[in-house]
Queue: 4 jobs
Job 1
Amino acid sequence: MVPKPESSIYIDPSTYPLARKDDSVVDDFHGIKVPDPYRWLEDPDSAETKAYVEKLNDISRPFIAASPVREKIRKKLTELWDYEKYGCTSKHGNYYFYYYNTGLQNQSVLYKQKNLNEKGEVFLDPNKLSDDGTTSIRTTSFTHDGTIMAYGLSEKGSDWVTLKFRTIEGVDLEDVVVGVKHSGLDWMHDNSGVFYSRYPEHKSAIEGSSTEKHKFHSLYFHRMGTPQKDDILVADFRDDPEYMCTGTVSEDGRYLIVEVGRGCDPMNLLYYYDLAAANNKITGKLDLKPLFDKYDAKYEFVDSEGDTALILTNHESPMFKLIRVKMADAKEGPTKWETVIPEQEKSKLDWVAPVIGGRLIACYVEDVKNTLYVHYAKTGKRLYQIPLEIGTVSSFFGRKHHSEIFIAFESFLIPTIVYHADFRDAKPTDVVEIKELRRVEIAGIDTKKFNVKQVFFPSRDGTKIPMYIMHKKEVKLDGNNAAMLNGYGGFNIADLPWFSVQRLLFMQYFNGVFACANLRGGSEYGEKWHEAGMLERKQNVFDDFIAAAEYLINNRYTSPQKFVSLTRF
């Protein structure tokens, strides 16, 4: 039995302000009365909410400020954060592009270079777009020939995005599109314009300051050289106001693929439009054809070849599989589908990308880490594995018409490794070696002095739950160590290994133990794992976290008095 914790950090709960309880707010869901007495707190702009938050701040601010080590922690965090940061390289037209941050810049800068061995030159520096450095690049999309980049800017963390357009020479065009939100961004292959998404009516707001609920997310086409008021509504879905939609142009430029779904739902609809058959003319709403018109699974477009498409799906396959379908009859169901890469029992197929030479790069989640394999696109046969350390593929770039691929990788102790491989002149069965293009390290931190291991412990119902545990090798397991336990367990999100400066500081300078438990409700083991932690099964998430804490305490990594919970369920 785990003893009752006695924390050394204490704030008298009697000093906290009482929130007004409004018993008049009651919802009726199919005859079931559900009270919501604190709904007034959902309005961040009301005077009452602002006053209540300020009372809370009056308690927390002086408590935090009184810490004798706060300034030391701030200085050490600043030192650790001051390291070079690189994003994944990509290639568009004749240039390579990558994001780079010298260390403490507010925003990373987009660079371009003619070849990988030369020094890059600044292509777009968002730090120069505002005095306070809070204007960020939220999205980019290059034309197929790499001559123009569409980019979306966000102000002060807002979800609202303004689209602008820059030539490869670094000159901004006059086109501007405002009010974009939750949008993809893709070009027609003739460079005539871009597809983007927005709500028909909107009021831009800074993220976190608006609770306005928007409806009827719609897909638009902006024709270059024309004002936004002339943008063309090409698709909307008025039968459900919560549907959100995005448009993607297939790599061969023939099809517009429209994905429709609700928020974090693990399912969606897919439609297509034959742009080539219409001579790439966009004049109004498109006559979309259904690829998958049943809202029963996740369907993700991967690639097309002629009148067929490769689709990643979890239809009757909770760990996902890759199928090939004919565009015209995919909607008729599984009898018309061909399995290319079958579902694996213990490995979730996370994404698939086509690359040159009839190859596919397949990324799996295997026991809470990413693995990469090369497959033959025609048959799905697995050719070989791309070697990686235990960690996460944070970004990938590869195209059917490019011979080169780039892989960005990170882990608990590794901020970034960018790998590069070139399939030029390689036969489909040749094993192509990946090489390090860049490896980012933290000055003063020797990662060899740390230990990272994965354990599997039983939850309350006996289900085995994975958990990573990390600390300095010199740490003694005597129950006297401070320990942080991270857990998420929600929204179908896989909590894979990721790098954190704060975590590194805790382990390096406080001899702390950090653990990351992969609770049910995420997607680490597919849809069944997700469903096991939602709705009436949400208790499993709490049980998993409690069992993780008990494991750390019973195995003397820490004690109740020195245990810290980092939860977001």
Note: The radius of gyration is 26 Å.
Job 2
Amino acid sequence: MADNDTKRRPRGLKRSTLASPAQSPATVEEPVVAKKPRLEKEHDPEDETQTLIIDKEVEEGDEVAEVKVIYESAVEKLGKMFMRFLVLEWTIMMGCSTIPKAALPLLRGTIHECDRILRNRHVASPPLPASFHLTYGSALFDMGTVLEEEEDPAPYWDAARERLEVGLEDVEKEVAEEREGDEGKRERQEIEKGLRMMLGRVLVSKSIPETLIPFRIPPYQQATNILFTTRSNASDKKTLSQLLVDSTTHFDRALSLPLAPATVADLCIAASSVQLHADKHEDEEPRLRWNGWAKKIFVSVLEDDPAYIPALMGAGSCLLSIASYWLEQQNANNGSDGEDNDDEEEEKELTKEEKAAAEALIEGTAYFQSALDASEITGTTTSEILAMLAESQINLANLTSDADGAQTALYRRAVAHLRHAKEAKSLEGWVLPEGLESFLDQWEVEMGADEEEDGKAVDGKDEGEEDG
């Protein structure tokens, strides 16, 4: 492998572009009987309505409760996309090509009904509860998140932020008036947690310039042109940075409410939101700071459940992003794209940047390997897990001496994982990122497709891996 540096240093793997547009819905006129959204090319043109049967007890005339039920029904329909994160691995939106078609009319219906409730209010009406603003703001955020790629989500997110902040102001007023033994205290904290969690997600989304929806495409499948670089306008960077500070403040408050303890889902959603943002920065301070913030939360989840796959993938992704930063700095210092003298590569001492990258990659690879091990036990191994592990192994191999065969062993493991990734189950529309596909093709051309030999390397797993 030492004679082909192109193969040994496949840079930019994390940002191979994968188009995965969601489809746009049509506007609905009623909350429970709605026009069918344009979600799939093939559908029955005669089936243009959808009826929602509310199977939960709602007091007659309680419009706030009714609209909450409609939104909860939308969330259930979105489950295939959003809850994948909680079931399989950290990359929750790994290139879904379609949105569950039953969800969008329900989101439209929720927004329509909430807007109607607001318009029908008058001065003498009692104030709407904070839970109403949570429902309205959540529906607006979700709608903005699942729009077609060419549509601008900002108006939805701005409206969501406004609604959620109104709700939070109301909760804070109620908290200020709380008395000892107040029976509603727990419920208020649950609502406050929901408002702060959603506000955190809104602000993270707004803090990424020219963003592709952060919950749609994971770090290593995003285009390089959405990186938040030093070339950005200084005032814009300050504004965007403040949005992220505000978002993590909301997350921290939400995750620390004593009567509304954070769930594993809360923790991982907050951490993954921030990590996806951190990966878009080229500057050292935000890249390391926000990856560190996210990793700390993922690790806290693993303290209670060491085999929890989303947290393992999340921690590994934080470390892979940190390693990528140091490798980018090494390339910049060399004034090259990472091409080194092959004859001297194995003998020279690693630079400060390479040592920092190797340290992060060793730890990150261990997290990815643990995620794969856990998924094999539960039968939930996916292409995404295998690809992330392979990417980390390839980059670690680039920094590893082959004097004792350790480098070649790492490459062989990565190749075996990439082959498996092409056959394993994955989200609809997922493909092996271009950089990884190119690495695999080059390996098989120059080294041959010796699946048996590469399989032996995987059987050896991490023996000696940390020696690099």
Note: Residues 1-14+280-468 form one domain.
Job 3
Amino acid sequence: MSNVNTLTVQEEEDIIARALTEWEARKVQVLIDDDDIPENARYLPLESLVEFLEQQEIPVKVYVDGENYLIKLRKRVPYDEFKEFIYSLTDFLRRGHWVKAEWSREKGAIVVKRWRE
């Protein structure tokens, strides 16, 4: 006979609260919606992007959404700080011969193409 471990409601709530606290404490949060990449495409690895973003001061969420990475700021920052963030992100992307980062008012995020053919 197998042994079944059970949790009380309070223990379960504590686990969820701890997980949410750890999630909110992360500087870079990643949410994946669509992770498909076309065959033979050169792509920007998510790990490289996250590594770069971890070095920045501004906490962000990265949404993997089809052909784009959508980078959303998790707190309001002064415009000058935002511009500096965009410039450093664009510089990082150019060093990898990639495209530039662009602000999309429609999506409310910085858009970075995930791949190129």
Note: The helical segments are 9-25, 46-54, 79-95.
Job 4
Amino acid sequence: MRGHDDRVGRLSADWSVPPTRLPAGDPAGSVGPGGGPPVPHEEVTMSEYDDRLARLSDNQRALLDRWLAEDPAGGAGPLRPDGRPPRTEAERILAGVWEEVLETGGIGADDDYFALGGDSVHAIVIVAKARQAGLALTAHDLFEARTLAAVARRAAPAGPAEPVPDAGGGAVRYPLTPMQQGMLYHSAGGSTPGAYVVQVCCRLTGDLDVAAFRTAWQAVLSANPALAVSFHWSDGSPPEQVVDPDARVTVDTADWRDRTPAERDDAFARFLDTDRAAGFDLARAPLMRLTLFREGEHAYRCVWTHHHLVLDGWSQQLVLRDVLDCYMRLRAGRGAEPPARPSFTGHLRRLERQDGIDEEFWRDHLGGLPAPSRVAGPGCRDGRVVAVRRAEHRHRVSAATGRELTGFCRRHGLTPAAVLHGGWAVLLSLHCGQDDVVFGTTLSGRPEDLPGVTECVGLFINTLPLRVRCGEDTDVVDWLHGVQSDLAALWDHAHVPLSRVERGLGLGRGGGLFDSIMVVENFPAAVADGHEAGGLRVTEPRALVDEGYPLVLEATTGDRPVLHARYDPHRLAGGRVQALLAAFDDYLRAVTADPARPLPDLRAVLARDHARRDGAARGRRRAADRTRLTLARRRPATTTEGETP
């Protein structure tokens, strides 16, 4: 019937009221939810109704699932008919913030943060918006108290905002963030060409005004001092970043309209290699450039190359959004007018006052670790030195598994990030043969109490070691709650450089604690595939980057999570990486299918599947080797001059 059903569905104009299908004999609009008054709605065919439902956000879909669970007939009433409405001033303020950030409505005092789809990124935004509304709380409050009423009881009146220093008009010097310190150390050594060079690639379709495009980029650069920095260091003094108010961005162009599609693809791949290897002079701002390749009358490829020292992924999305908004205004005959974003210097000054390391925490977290966890084969002496060109594999989780993961997290008070980190811990433990493993996790690093932190551009992230014990005799859900707690505990230490953790505790000799990183991406304002601005359509956006580790696992959450592996092909076989991604799928299905499963049983199932898949891969390699040997035997022998004797 799908696509051919001409019955009518009712789509509410207010998502605090559930969509319903009209019961037989019910004239449109005569009945509201629970038999109450009618609500604003739109009547559409069932095929359009289904299409609309397919385009709902994760939180809207979860809200619908809850309505249907309460009333399968579709005539559901309020979100929690038996729940308490927010009554205190703090509850009402928080309810408004939750509804805005979590994209839902009708939140009651007893509603659970995780059941509504909350995670660590939402927590940062909620804490910031609550502070603007006069309430002070922390992300830990959301994770620990969970219900709206309990979180409201923890909230306190927000004090005056900490003044944020301005960058001023001339060249200004600032310290480095922990992540910048590590990146600078590896970038300045020169042993890894292209390390930490980020290439954001996309296609642009439309009537591109190159001059307006260039002006938009320059306007955003000039409005964000964090984009106009260079880096300087000398023996005996700490490195500094210096803001250059006169920095100018370059936009190079090339016309490829006379080339075939295959020629363009080959040339583009060569350009990416050359561009990455060229890197940047870190002492000269700005550490960014753009290149446009025209492939048709209204078709371009765009590459925004910048150094990771300057931006993290969250900030990258803010910059792209600002550039496209400025371009749209310029095309409409107005000024660029980029938004006045909060200064990154407030974060840098705060870091200067946090120049300490909680050695007791790190001893508890990492003490007694039997050995570093290695996924890659031997390479250069420094475990982080990798090949210039990274290999990559992507694996998209099925829609069914994605839905099961979302429901599993909401039911059990977990974030997708905790489940994904647990997955890599189990797979790493099987790969290394260790029950006790450690790997890097990338934290957002955005201090929730810093004014305007969600809208600030700069490098906030930090990568720190996450230790996970996979040999515990407990069920999967309890174990994942432990992983989630350990992840949350790292938030308070996001200002500490990894090098200080390793050095301070005498760890990491011979290449560091780990050689793999897990990154869970969930940006609140991402420029999505298909974004349009000023007559331009942005498609196929992707970011290429070498983070300096043999294996980086990047996961995006949502209806169909994507697992993206970037790795050093000199130290990891592509087949092994693909097998790890497939095993991740096995893990997600097993966890969501039986949450009460004991952790040892889960490991046994995954180990059996891994052995089966590994055996099949070895069989394919042996067959390929036999084929190559047969071909070699049949090939005529040649002399040293290359002639058949």
Note: The chain is about 40% helix and 20% strand.
